[in-house]
Amino acid sequence: MSLVNFSSREITCKIVYYGPGRSGKTSNLQYIYGRVPDARRGRMVSLATQTDRTLFFDFLPIDLGIISGFTTRFQLYTVPGQVYYNATRKLVLQGADGVVFVADSQARRLDDNLESLQNLQANLLAQAVDVRNFPLVMQYNKQDLPADLILTPENLDDALNFRGYRSFSGDALRGAGVFETLKGISELVLKRLAAAGPGAS
Amino acid sequence: MPKLNPRHRFDTYVVGSANRLAVTAAKAVAESPGAVYNPLFIYAGSGLGKTHLLMAIGHHALTVSPQLAVEYLTLDEFIESFNAAIAAGQGEAYRRRYAEVGLLLVDDVQFLTHRREMQAELLRLTSTMLSSGRQIVLSSDRAPHEIEALDERLIQRFAGGLVIDIAAPDYETRVAILNRQAEERNCQFDPSVIETVASMGISSIRELIGAFNRLIAYQAVSPAPLSSTEARVLLGKTMSTGLRQASGLAQAPPGAAAPESSSAPPPPPAPAPSPASTGGDEFGSFLTEISSAVARQVEAWRGRVAEAVLRWQGEGYRTTRLEHLLDEDTPVDPDAILRDYEEDVERLRRLEAEAQELDAQIAGTPLFRDPDRVEEAGAEVTRVRDGLSPPPGPAPIWQLSAFVESAGTRMALHAAHSVLMQPGSQYNPLLIVGGSGVGKTHLLHAIGNVLAGRSGEIIACLRAPDLVEELIKAIDQDQVTRWRARYRRVTALLLDDVHLLAGRDRTQEELFWLYNHLAETGRQMIFTSTVPPGELAGIEPRLRTRLEAGLVVELPAPDREVRQAIVDRMLTEKLGAPDAELAAYLAGRPVETVRALQGLVQRVIAAAEAANQRPTVGLGRELLEGNPAAPARRTSQNRTSGLLSPTGGLRSREKVVWDWPDVADRLIEDLR
Questions:
Q1: A-chain residues within 8 Å CB-CB of B315?
Q2: B283, B288, B291, B312: best mutation site toward chain A, by most A Cβ within 10 Å?
Q3: Which of A9, A16, B229, B298 has the smallest number of CB atoms closer than 10 Å to its CB?
């Protein structure tokens, strides 16, 4: 998809929240949804199972208005975390301009985080995306839980962030770190504009 | 930039119990447009400060957030621009124009009466603005439900925000207003004078200031400080209770005597908490950062051009030139092209503004929206300008130097000189009141002649009946727009005998709009009337209160000093040297008007010429007081010309039957 369309003067950023099941991807989107003025947001589409797990994906379009003469829109997606929904994840990941990897900070979920991260890399590679240059940030969610249950951001960086992506601590339920993460990924995505230039696709 | 009067701010608005609620609501709206009381509907009688409050909201909102797009317009302008846009097939562009407006101030919405299309358009606009959280503030001289044939949906929409009235100012507020006026005008008055004016029960602020102007003008020509008794006498002459009852709060609806008992619905709950207090500003800060990131990353010149395209498209201009620029990979100098484009747009705007004054229908054409056709637009405006004849000007026979100054005329003359020193800003309008034949027309034309002698001045100086006649002719020839354009471009409007507009509703309406236009653009208006504004029957209150918003001066019947000067001048002109005895005799004649006095002098001179002798007191006395042997025929005092009869009286040629019909013919005529 075109990130920047110079003839129609539109910028559209597709950002995908990726991570293991129950790590808090949908919570991130719900928090953002609650903070965006009505006029700026579209309907949040959420397809969930009866137990509130994301079945297909969440979709939140945000209209940032006209910035530097460009109608700027952000489309935020989440993927279903559960391992058996990989086909859906691939589909959602298609054409993504950036990814937020939402890791569950609980020590017991470390393997799930690793598995999901590997799955992300595999899916990006399958789409011929060079993960070394791809805009990606990490969010270590649930940092509000008791310290004995979770790993510190430093530990998580050591365990997961071997590529040295920017990382953020988060508490998606209460909103801590949610917008910081979104800003982080947005800046990375927009940086690509300069490299891509007019006619980029 | 919105055309907000710089004087109409909150700090120049005197707050009293009658308007406190309205001012509080207005301030809340100005502080956070769109967040509270949306829409805000302010209503009040004529001259109670609606427009001031509306503009104050605009000023304050701009101070709080300078980036906010604020637009102030009267309903008339709203209608005119809509009609022009529709005529030009630019309906969508017209609507887009308001898409960027964050605070819209619409004045005088009472004129929505029976205008179904405009009601629908305003409803649509209100809904759009409300749904996107943008603020709309409206004012009217009556509550929404009292506006005749107003769409129920609009009434409900207005009621959904806050409908609030401004009552007439109480005594204390009136004193405060007058004190502030004195301070602004740098005038010193005894407190008892201010109290006297405030206690005269003048409810309209516009009238109150008009009355005060009169005192200032009187004080300027009076050697001693004005006393409260003099003030009362001075104002008592021109302010009638009739006017006070007809204007101002007399129009306010029942129950609106005080804000506390207002019929308006109670204000909605306290303002919604600001985003910052709920942490909701996270999105705002996110947006700011994204904006700067986009600005950094998008090729700078493309960003500027794209921004310009959106901006000018939004304002309804064609942007083909800029769009072509965006298609190029590396244009030579995009900034120069942008500058040229913006200069062309600016030129188009000036041309359109001029065209709007000349002929609104032309102003609405797409020609003025295409910067690539700016030369063509210039040629079109020149063509229209050349085809427009100037309005009637002042008659050169009346010069200011010939106007006799005396104790009675001193104040009027002083006002005239003040107006000539600062036209449009000192006393605007100036209303000259006086009986028939006392010199109102002379003074009016004399001022007009001085103004007309200055470069670039277009002076309209005519009698009210002529204005009516011109309008009728324009209506008949479907040339009303051109007629308006003719008068809208004048730098001063001098209208004689404004009282003769009584019952001429359409002309009054046109004059009302013309007045507003000229007042807003700081152009001088002078009117004359035989009766004080308070006694003007058949003139709408909205026009009447405006007539005395500036200064009302009175021209009394000519006193001895004036009569002597006039007689001396006339005799000198005719005879070379005046006969002192004759001059004293004629000046002593009991006449009420200058015109009658001139008639007397002419009669004596004509009688002397007929008798082939110099005019003497004896001749004058015989002619004017009668000769028992051959009594002079009595003639109207107003006659200034005519034929000399053998008996010394004056007879009109038209009134004399010179050829009597044959008696027989007459009999046959009768038999038929």
A1: none
A2: B283
A3: B229
**Interface mutation vs chain B, best among A13, A41, A68, most B CBs within 10 Å:** A68
Q: Are B10-167+254-269 and B177-243 equal in CATH topology?
A: no
Which residues of B are less than 8 Å from A190 in CB distance? Answer: 290, 293-294, 296-297
Kindly determine whether residue A179 and residue B305, on different chains, have CB atoms separated by under 8 Å: no
8-state DSSP, A38: G
Contact A9 B299 (CB under 8 A): no
Nearest by Cα to B138 from B161, B168, B169, B115: B161
CB contact under 8 A, B279 and A68: no
Instruction: Collect all residues of chain A within an 8 Å Cβ-Cβ radius of residue B286.
Output: 179, 182-183, 186
Strongest mean pLDDT among B152-166, B565-579, B639-653: B152-166
Chain B closest-CA separation from residue A76 CA (Å) = 14
Q: Would you kindly state where each structural domain of chain B is located, as residue ranges?
A: 10-167+254-269, 177-243, 303-387, 400-555, 560-653
Q: Write the CB contacts of A184 (distance below 8 Å, at least 6 apart in sequence).
A: A137, A166, A168
What's the topology of domain A4-196?
Rossmann fold (3.40.50)
Lowest mean pLDDT segment, chosen from B54-63, B318-327, B341-350:
B318-327
- The structure's pTM equals 0.46
Domain at B400-555: CATH architecture: 3-Layer(aba) Sandwich (3.40)
For residue B295, which residues of chain A lie inside 8 Å, CB to CB? 67-68
- Pair B548, B238: CB distance under 8 Å: yes
> Which of B23-27, B260-264, B266-270, B651-655: highest mean pLDDT?
B23-27
Note whether A64 contacts B329, CB cutoff 8 Å.
no
B131–A6 C-beta distance less than 8 A: no
The CATH number of domain B177-243 is 1.25.40? no
Q: Which residues of A touch B306 (CB under 8 A)?
A: 6, 9, 68-70
Cβ distance of A194 and B282 shorter than 8 Å: no
Per-domain residue ranges for chain A? Answer: 4-196
Mean pLDDT by 10 residues, chain A (201 residues): 67 92 92 88 70 69 80 89 83 92 96 95 92 92 94 95 93 93 91 57 37
Q: Give dist(CA B641, CA B652) in Å, integer.
A: 8
Best CA proximity match to B157, nearest among B148, B141, B145: B145
DSSP annotation string for B256-309: -SSGGG-SSPPPPSSPPPPHHHHTTHHHHHHHHHHHHHHHHHS-HHHHHHHHHH
